[in-house]
Structure formats: structure tokens, C-alpha cells
Amino acid sequence: MLSPVLFTLAGASALVAALLPRVVDRLPVNLPMAFLGAGVLLGLVPGLPSVDPLKHREATQHVTELVVIISLMGAGLALDRAVGWRRWASTWRLLAVAMPLTIAAVAWAGWLAGLPVAAALLLGAALAPTDPVLASDVQVGEPADEDNTEDEVRFALTSEAGLNDGAAFPIVHLAVVLAGTGLSVVALRDWFLEDVALRGVVGVASGLLIGWVLGRLFFHSPLPSLRLADNAEGFTALAVTFLAYGVTELVHGYGFVAVFVAACTIRSAERAHGAHKVAHEFVEQIERMLTSWLLLLLGAALTDGLLAALTWRLALVGVLLIVVIRPVVGYLSLARTAGGPRERWVIGSFGVRGIGSLFYLAYALGEGEFPGEELWAAVGFTIALSVFVHGLTAGPIVRRLDAARFRHAPTDHRGDVAGTHL
Hints:
The chain is mainly α.
């Protein structure tokens, strides 16, 4: 009888995922909060199978991997701002300054909480990235027909979430090296050449090449039958996602980076084409359905023993990350960028933790020896805290910021509200 129960839960959760955004549109409740809370209650129901990511590590890794790459495609397609050094200044600051400092601070706090050095570094790497799956309240919406339509808050958080999942991967590999052979000059050299330089360059190059080829094919092919954008089909976005990820991983690159770069490259091939909206909408629907299922499982795991190994020190690490480390580091890293002080505080404060953290942890536990129970407890607690804290506050704060931006916009340029900084 287990199979009918699972199909019933899957169908019910998918239906609720379609209805919920409309029902709670003006309430301080979002889809991640609702499904995580429902999963917590589901985990209390007797007779259901155990949900243990340690026992089902490979399944956890692959399911979270799927959700993340789909969300990365959606994030890349949604961005209206063309890639550029100055135009993306806030993104580069968040990647080059905020993320390394966040990793270091969380790793230090984790070490003080009793974790071995390698495990503390892994905790920092897993929890540092802003999640593209759960941060929809503070991310850009559908693709628009013009450049620079996003405000700085939504643009910075969306572009950061699109790139930092891949950018954190080298530190995960470093934690694996530290847990295995330990650090040495040779190990550091090999790690840098392979896990930083080679995989990073291959990921970017592969994403650019695949995005350029498919962009030319979809929009500018001399054969009308090959111009898929003329008769837009949403599932072509999944084709691009899987192709970019699979090919890049086969040639030893970072697939997360390639998927986001490919999405941005395809968007730039014909920026104002309506096919982007069709593809983005399809990807968003798939992402919402998969996320609802995954959050149900995570919530059930929280009440099924995932938090058994959580100590007050490890819980404090999660609280410090959400309340102190990310807001302060994020704000300081954005000094002298386009956004105003209030926008910088919002960007710093709403670096949502989520599905990418689950993937990194599941991946690393398959590559090296780590205290898995303690790490799962810390990561699960931090994600749950982020979902509820950010879920309760993101909508109201962003709406208030939007209203203030509209009030401060020049009366003769009300259409340029996104370019008004606070």
C-alpha cells in the first residue's frame, strides 16, 4: 500500500503548489514555509517510511542536484540585465568578497562548536551559497522585453544565486581533500589546478559554447524548421539544462556554472523574444513542483531524527549565519555599488539557505569521511530557520522597499522606478 500513499502525497502536494501562491499572495507565508511545515507534520504520522538522508545519500544527492540545475536555468533566463563588469558589480562583490568571508566565518564558528576542521570547512561551503530555489520572494520575475528592468535587490540576489552554487564547489572539494589526505603543498597545488582553475574554466567555457550554439540555432538558424523559438516549447529549457550540465560534467567542468552561463547566453542571443517567457514559465512550474516534494521530505526528516545530533553550539552557528554573518558581510561587501544603504541591507539580509546546501552535503559525504549526523543536523536546522525567518520577512520588507522606491522616483520618470536607489 506504500506506492498509492506516495502517489497520493505527490499529487496532492503538486496541486497545492499550483494553488498556494494565489491563496497566500498578500500573506507573510510562502510556498517553502508551507511545505516545510507540512513535512514536519507528515513526519509525525506513524507508519510512513523513514526519511534519512544519510541512509539515502545517493538519492538525496541526485534529487537535490536536479532541483538546483533547473532553478539555475530559470534564474539565468529571468535576468534582463546584460552581463558586464560594471552592470554586475554587486554580483561580483557578493561572489568574490561576501561568499569567501561567509565560508570562513561559518567554518570558524563550526570549529568552535566542536566540528573537526574539515567538517567545519564543509559546513561553511555548504551554507554559504544563496539559494536560487527558495529565494523567489526576493528574486526577479518573468523575463522582460527591455534591459535593466530589475531593481538592484532582486537583480543582485538572483545573479548571486545563479553563480555562487558553482563558485562554492572548490571549497567543498578542499574540505574533502582535508578530510582525506590532509593539506600539503602537493595537495593544495593539485586542488587549485584541478578543482579551481580547470573545472571553473571548463564550466564557463562550456556554458558559453553550448549557450551560443543553441541560441544561434533557436533564434537565427537559416532553416526555419530548426528555429525552435518561432514555436516556443517550454521543455526546450529542460533540454538545454540537461545538455549543458551533462556535457560539462563529462568534460570535467562545473555543471552548475555551465547551466547558468548557458541560460544567460541564450537570453542574450535574442533578449526580447517571447520564447524566453515561455521557457521560464515552464521551468518555474517544474521547479515549484519538485521543490514542494523535496521540502515535504526535508520537513519529515526534521521530525524523524535529523535533528537528533544538533547541539546548542551547532544551532548557534545557524542563527549567527542568518542573523549576523550574512547580513553584515553582505552589506559591507557591497560598499560603493549601485544600491543605496537600505538596498544593501536587504541584499545582505536575504541570502536564503536551501536546496544547494543539501546537495553539497550529500555529495561531500560520498567523497570523504565526515561526521554526517552532526552536519546534517546543522544544515537541516539552518535551512529550516532560513525558510521561516526569510519567508516571514521577505515579502513585507521587499514590498515596503518597492513602495519607498516609487515614492522617491522622479515624478517625470515613474517608469524608471527600478533605477531609483534607497
